[in-house]
User: Fold this.
Amino acid sequence: MSAAVADTCFLVHWLRFRDRERLFEVFDSVAVPAMVLEEMGARGRAMLAPWLASRRAFLIPRINEYEVEALRLVEFSRSQRLPTLDPPEAYCLAVARRRGYAVLTDNKAPKYLVRALSEYANVKVLDSLDVLALIYGSTLIRAVRAYEEDAGLIFSRSRLRTYGVEL
Assistant:
């Protein structure tokens, strides 16, 4: 197993999921950048608190070199007309590239960026559906239904078909 760095959207969705603890079957720990923690709001931070207390999640402070790299990524995505990459997502990508972490996000922009920049080709970007597939395998359809119900995130039917799921 390994570590991952998570952005706000992934954490907000995943922390609502009834089987959220199963994330640690895939990752030993989850890094949470300070700027992500700020975005989560009081309720999100309260839901994250048990993971922080148990040290399964840990905070990454603002580090200038990551912020500079994140700004470069945001500017690149805009200049190339890629899907909008927000600063916290870009920060997660910078952390992941330098530390060898996976990125957990429910936004599509990071997946586009790692395909567009060769220096990011080795960064693994996973969304909730990717993680559910890793955890549940052949019982994915039940997990998808539960996740959609709990998190309020509806996966696109075409995306589900990539994992052989028809709802």
